[in-house]
Amino acid sequence: MPPEYEAEMEVTHWFDIDAQIRLLAKAEAERQETEKNKKNYVVMLTADHADGGKRATLAFSAACAALAMDLKAIVFLIGDGAYWAYEGASDEIVTKGFPPLAELIETFLELGGNIYICAACDQVCSLPDEVGVVKQRHPAIQPRGLATILTLMVGGTSVTF
């Protein structure tokens, strides 16, 4: 609970439950309003592994930085960037001066970031499967349409890698 409400709660009597409930409700409403007003930071990742994962590493580094700046960060995998949605794609990818890509992706997710893959690109725009091998999408990565991403960009910021 924010400190400004703790002082108010100290002066209320323990039996004044209604006052305490009102203070807690006010604090929660302010927290929700703050969360709602966070600016979206959309990172569009359009590159596959042809550059050794450098652009993907930069994209997820930028997305982690956005979360550290208290922005609502979303990574959108589109076109060739759909490559990174599948399990194992980021394994063994290390760009000098950065943590491994798999670690950046997991850190981003643990910090509350969202990763979406273009619904039209899912299983289509990424590199073809080996014969008989089915790609498994990372369970935290969800398909979304372009309208979803455009909606997130309104009033926010986007960057493309």
The ordered H/E elements are: HHEHEHEEHE
CATH architecture of the largest domain: 3-Layer(aba) Sandwich
Structural shape: elongated
Q: Pairing-aware structural class of the strands and helices?
A: alpha/beta
Neighbour order of strands in the largest sheet: 4-3-2-1-5
Low-confidence sequence ranges? none
Number of domains: 2
Distance between the termini: 39 Å
Largest sheet: 5 strands, parallel
Tell me how many strands there are.
Answer: 5
> In CATH's first tier, which class of the largest domain applies?
Alpha Beta
Indicate the percent of residues in helices: 25-40%
Proportion in β-strands: 15-25%
CATH fold-type name of the largest domain: Hypothetical Protein Ychn, Chain: A
Please identify which CATH superfamily of the largest domain we are dealing with.
DsrEFH-like
| Spatial extent as radius of gyration | 21 Å
Number of H/I helices: 5
Write down the overall mean pLDDT: 84
